[in-house]
Amino acid sequence: MIPAPFDYVAPTSVEEALAALKQHGDDAKILAGGQSLLPVLRMRLNAPEMIIDLGRIDALRGIRDEGDAIVIGAMTPHSVVGADPLVREHALLVSRAVAELADAQIRHRGTFGGALAHADPAGDLGGPARALDAQFVIAGPSGTRTVSADEFFVDLFETAISEDELLTEVRIPKHTGWGAHHEKLVRVAHQWPICAVAATARVENGTIADVAIGLANMGSTPLRARGVEEELRGRPATEEVVRAASARAAEGANPPSDLNGSAEYRNHVVTVMCRRAVLAAVQGAGA
Ligand SMILES: Cc1cc2nc3c(=O)[nH]c(=O)nc-3n(C[C@H](O)[C@H](O)[C@H](O)COP(=O)(O)OP(=O)(O)OC[C@H]3O[C@@H](n4cnc5c(N)ncnc54)[C@H](O)[C@@H]3O)c2cc1C
After folding, report:
1. Has residue 54 got a pLDDT over 80?
2. Is 80 exceeded by the pLDDT of residue 139?
3. Does residue 222's CB lie within 6 angstroms of at least one atom of ligand 1?
4. For the whole model, what pTM was predicted?
5. Distance from CA of residue 5 to its chain's centroid?
6. Atom 5 of ligand 1 has which residue's CA nearest to it?
7. How far apart are CA 227 and CA 207, in angstroms?
8. Ligand 1 pocket, residue 159 CB under 6 Å
9. Angle at alpha carbon of residue 81, lines to 75 and 87, rounded to 5°
10. Cα–chain-centroid distance for residue 97?
């Protein structure tokens, strides 16, 4: 299907983009890589009058080291994030998740910030963002504010970004030396996850010194498996311990039921996936 007619601007700075957002209000929509927005427009699920393309704003692209954090520009394509050595060294969980996100063409066009701003609960990046305590930098008419991953994801396809704001970058606290694994359940390759577990862990002398676990498609937003984390911290990094703790993976979850699986199925399978993800993460951390 062909989208409804719209006007188009391609600003070259964040300030110009914010001015366009202010001018057009809720008649405007931001375009990043277009991998989620264009299907929505083509299916006429949304018909904005103005498209504001962020593709010419160089300041929104790139990855830098800021001491205690790695900062990823919102318009950085998935393929660049996935290949970046800084991300691999300090936020391995992100590298692991991006490697499994969609296919090479979508990773080439789709952006890190676009995927997170889209806030599909089945998206592969929400779990790692929650697990790594990512900070979201949002620019608006009265300046810039930063929100935590816990506050950023509000509901299904809804984030803390207001209509007159845009996401500029994502700051990921360094998790240097942590092992990481992204366990994604799909029926066929390159699909959105039926559910996914993103686990990262630090191991000292065979003990799980710290661990963080994010879940995708287990509720209307990405979740944190805090019960499992609590049970694992300070415990030996053995299969027995990880298996027992992973039984709590669905605590507080409210997964959907659909053609890929019932909520009951997801509540069960996430415990198995959590065990696999945590075991791989602790092994990667040297257990
Ligand atoms: C066939 C297919 C399979 C896919 N499979 C997966 C998968 O397995 N896992 C997965 O995680 N994703 C998957 N995706 C989605 C992919 O990750 C997209 O890149 C992502 O959802 C959107 O990123 P984008 O840059 O293309 O954003 P766009 O589609 O351009 O924008 C998405 C939404 O975010 C808003 N937005 C974008 N950038 C900003 C910003 N900086 N500030 C404020 N709002 C913004 C837009 O207005 C729009 O509402 C798939 C997509 C397709 C088409």
Report:
1. yes
2. yes
3. no
4. 0.97
5. 31
6. 102
7. 18
8. no
9. 125
10. 9
Closest CA to 128 of 108, 100, 106, 105: 100
pLDDT at 278: 98
In the block, which residue shows the tokens 């990823």? Answer: 72
What are 222's two structure tokens?
């990405």
Whether 55 and 63 have beta carbons less than 8 Å apart is answered as no
CB 109 within 8 A of CB 33: yes
Find where tokens 């409210």 sit.
254
Q: Render 120-185 in DSSP notation, one character per residue.
A: -TT-SSHHHHHHTT-EEEEEETTEEEEEEHHHHEEETTEES--TT-EEEEEEEE--TT-EEEEEEE
Alpha carbon of 32 to ligand 1 centroid (Å)? 8
Ligand 1 center to 199 CA (angstroms): 23
Residue in the block written with tokens 């311990």: 241
